[in-house]
Amino acid sequence: MFLFIIFLILSFIFGWLYLFGQPRFSLDKLLFSLWSAAIGIAQLRLSPYEAPWTIKFWLLIILFFTVFYLAYKYSLKLWQRLITANQPRPAKPTIFIGIMLLLATLSLAANAYIFARFGTLPILSSLPDKMRFIINRQVFGLWEYAALLPRISIPLAFIFLLTSKTNRLTKILTVSFIVIGLIILSLYASRATIIFALLLCFFSYLIINRPKLNYKKIVAVTAIMLSLMIIISIAIPALRQYITYRDYYTDIDYDPFTYLADLSDLRIPAKLNFITPLYIIPAFNLQAMMRTADFYHGNNFYWGQYRLSVFPIFHQINIPWKEIFLPWWVTATFLFNYWADWGWLGIIIAAIFWGAGLALIYIGATKKTGLLPVLMFAYISFVTIMSIYTNYLLREEFYLDLILILIIGLILDRCSN
């Protein structure tokens, strides 16, 4: 309990510095705040599956954040000197609406194809928790990516509304694209996709209005965003699992959190089962990472092969999650692949890479206020949030998103000049 309190206090301090300190909205403070909260929560050890943290794992965490802090600090100064400030012209409304219309058409067409093939979509199915994985396995690739294009189009439209002076019709069309996009994302009953779009809007709002935001506005918008994240994180998986697994619990009083509470076996009163999703994400991921540090050593490191396995052309590696931690838990924070590939060296590489990379994105967004740098800042801020869960850079959609964002950015930039 002592460590829980200490790390929550640290999380609050770093969160305050992120929102109100100088420089404002610096990505190192975001990472420190998130991980301090996660480490604190993990010290509660509410599940019998959780073992006390080893000294080795504490040293791993300390090493990463020490090197990360130094890399971020000195990279910030380097990028500050190398990157020049500029103010690009706003995107032309007609070009932007054309792009939004194309993205919406592709998404609707892909969803129509998926619906025609399966006769349903996850939230409309009697088994939404399973239907998501069925669709993922059978139409994984560009069809599924196109179906979820509102992940990118929603924040893109939001940034456009914040940065462009347009007529009423253009604003109505842009808002309509946002609403349609949210409806499409909700059909997949995935908290990650909805939170992704909302967080990109949130971070875009912060960085665009960075010089003029006062305390009241920052507190208000942050409170709204945190509330939405908590509600979505609890409600969507609960609803999804309630619909899917309610028939398995006919002899007991079943509530939306029973299935996940049974799996994780948290030692909490039944009336508090609703906190299960919020607890296991940080606690179980860190526990899995600790077990990873013990499981992989010099004889069984992948030596870079796991990092390359994100690309289909390379050998795919199956991680023995059952031997590491639990068969149904398959993530271990963004540090997993660095340790599994390289051990202690991988942790140092990760710290330098993320420190220098986050500093580059931050300076780029504060010096270049166009749509592309703002969207990249928001995107990488989300990746930073996801770091307690998984390394988003190992997901194929990251590279598809990156290509799409760059293409859209180049089109809007060329057509504005």
What is the percentage of strand-forming residues?
under 5%
Largest sheet: none
Number of strands: 0
Roughly how much helix do the residues carry, as a percent range? 55-70%
Distance between the termini: 58 Å
H and E order: HHHHHHHHHHHHHHHHHH
Class by SSE composition = mainly alpha
- Low-confidence stretches are none
Round the mean pLDDT to the nearest integer and report it: 89
Can I get a quick summary?
The protein is mainly alpha-helical.
Descriptive notes:
The protein has 417 residues and is an all-alpha fold. Helix content is 70%, strand content 0%. The protein has 18 helices and no strands. The termini are far apart. The model has no long low-confidence stretch (mean pLDDT 89).
SSE layout:
Layout (H helix, E strand, L loop, with lengths): L1 H19 L6 H16 L12 H28 L10 H26 L9 H11 L3 H6 L2 H14 L4 H19 L4 H18 L6 H31 L12 H7 L11 H20 L9 H4 L12 H4 L11 H7 L1 H24 L3 H15 L10 H21 L1
Which keywords apply here?
18 helices; single chain; globular; mainly alpha; 417 residues
